[in-house]
Amino acid sequence: MDYSSYSGIARPGKGLAPFIGQIHFNLGDQNAHLVFLAPESNLTDRAVLALMDHLCWESGGRGALRLLAEIDEDQPIFELLRLSGFSVFARQQIWRFANYQPTSEKNNIWRSFQQIDQHNLNNLYHAVVPPLVQGAEAMDKRPVNGFVHYVDSELLAFVEVISGPKGIYLTPVLHPNLREPENLLSSLLSHINSSNGRPVYLAVREYQSWLNSAAESLGGKTGNKRIMLVRHLVNKQRVSVPATIRKVLEAHGTEPTTPMVHNTALKNETSNDIIASNR
After folding, report:
1. Residue 29 above 50 pLDDT?
2. At residue 86, does pLDDT exceed 70?
């Protein structure tokens, strides 16, 4: 076990099997992730609440601001997690693609994400992703790995890629103004098709549910719907931000000029004096 992982144990009572939970946290990230809770057959016991409090304490001690969890929609532990302080921030459908065979060849549609794309990615992320999800995941505040797709020099699609020994996990952020999403996903699956037979998993969030029909037409197999949960480990406080521009304007207030009526009267009076002197 390294510093990024931690396992906790809670004993519900004498002679009873303990509960085990594990978290994972990458140093420098803002979020820790709940990896598993066991045993699955008895997760309705209230001793799980003590275990979750302990895991949250350890997550905060490692520098995490939030603890994220992902469960099936019909799991009974959902209510216990809510009692533990978790709240729902999104729902998603997982699509599985195994041995995907592309129907057409698409070249130069996707390329690897680079640091120069970060500003455009932030614009796309804040335009497409709801604020509730942004506050939970904060993808714009952590390093990401994936692919980008531009249309007329405008970033309209990004897919985060997480690779492991048992599969490749994709989280897309696609602008709804994109045309032919089926061809775009087909090109993406062809682009990342692995040679060692690992399946590809596509996570479609409910705010991008229009991608489900495209995933189905490409032969994807659906799993259980997933609920995304977050528990914030810090207290939110409103912090006053000084209005610098307003202070500058107040410190250097504008001074009124000479009234135009007064200037006109003065001009007329001067003209009369000149005429009188000429006479």
Report:
1. yes
2. yes
Length of the chain: 279
What is residue 44's predicted lDDT score, i.e. its pLDDT?
75
Residue 164: both structure tokens together: 């492991």
Q: Is the pTM for the entire model greater than 0.85?
A: no
The amino acid at 76: P
pLDDT confidence of residue 158 = 96
Average pLDDT over residues 39-68: 90
Q: In Å, what is the CA distance from 56 to each residue of 3, 22, 49, 87, 232?
A: 15, 11, 11, 14, 9
Residues 171-199, buried b or exposed e (16+ Cβ, 10 A)? bbbbbeeeeebebbbbbbbbbbbeeeebe
Domains of the chain: 89-232 (3.40.630.30)
**Cα separation, 134 vs 90, whole angstroms:** 10
CB 231 within 8 A of CB 56: yes
Ranked by mean pLDDT, the top range of 105-109, 126-130, 142-146, 262-266 is: 126-130
* DSSP string over 232-279: E-S---------HHHHHHHHT-------HHHHHHHHHHHHHHHHHHH-
> Which of left, alpha, beta for 53 (phi over 0: left; psi -120 to 50: alpha)?
alpha
Cα dist. 196→57, 253, 259 in Å?
39, 70, 83
